[in-house]
Amino acid sequence: MRVHILYTGGTLGMIDTPAGLAPGADLTGWLDRLLTGTDLADEVTLSAFDHLIDSSNATPADWAAITADLWAHQQEADGFVVLHGTDTMSYTSSALSFALTDFGKPVVLTGSQYPLGVVGSDATPNVTGALRAVTSGKLDRVAVFFGHKLLAGNRVMKTSSWAFQGFDCPSVPALALTGAPWQWTPAVQTGCGWHDPAPYQRHDVLVLDLAPGITAARLAAALDPLPEAVVLRAFGVGNMPSEEPGLAAVISDTIASGVPLVVASQCPQADVLLGHYEAGHALAQAGAISARDMTIEAVYAKLVFLLCQGLAAEEIAHWMVTDIAGELSS
Ligand code: ASN
Fold this sequence. Notes:
CATH architecture of the largest domain: 3-Layer(aba) Sandwich
Low-confidence stretches: none
Structural class: alpha/beta
CATH class of the largest domain: Alpha Beta
Helix content: 25-40%
Strand order of the largest sheet: 4-1-5-6-7-8-11-12
Number of helices: 9
Distance between the termini: 34 Å
Number of domains: 2
CATH topology of the largest domain: Rossmann fold
Largest sheet: 8 strands, mixed
Mean pLDDT: 97
Shape: elongated
Order of helices and strands: EEEHEHEHEHEEEEEEEHEHEHEHH
CATH superfamily of the largest domain: L-asparaginase, N-terminal domain
Bound molecules: asparagine
């Protein structure tokens, strides 16, 4: 089994600098020592971003660069591991899941909370777990391995800034849990796929949180000038203040201007049901799109993905509620 690793940056390969943690560790030497004497000793190739990043700096251009690197090595390996910072790893894994439905080989992202040079770091279990996942013969999609769990790439969220169990899927079970042997969950649906997608580039998608007391004037100001699409993080099943003067009109004017507006929930575990309450009725009436049980990361990456395909607002509305890569329960 051959594995290709792409190193993009993140805490895993960072060292202390006067300005805080920054890339600079000897990843190649560390990997060599990790794999010497194992069944993967001579089976791993490595490529790296020219400019290693803290994943807080990642943009859709980085999602495109990762996708391009994976395709460039697609024939050379049986499985692929992307070493990535944890901060935006679930955005990248969601994005890759839409772009790689045709890839046909497992891709697992991982990183760590502590750098590889710290005694007790989670770098070793996370990287070896990711390697084990992509060589298992049981995975055919984009996933994240972290804290002894293998998690679907477009269902996962970073749930802790410090815990070794820093990631979870609030709406679906883990794909596998480590152990001897690993415990695998029976495979579930993976969506209809997307053939030959246009590469990622940046689009103007606004993610907006509602909070008690928000006014129509504040919401209107945040939407001026209009972005290409909006993700409105509303309350519960997709509710907003229905008694606040002018608020519903700002939403309906935005949608009437041809801007897709997706309503997601502030609850990590949610199923958005627009109109279930009177407080969500205006959103349903205005033609807002429900995020259903998608994570905020999957919603954002999917909107950027669909905008990159040059789709009109009605087509975006259709695809947002259609399962492309297993991101959405049908
Ligand atoms: N700031 C880091 C990053 O996302 C956090 C980490 O990797 N643990 O690149």
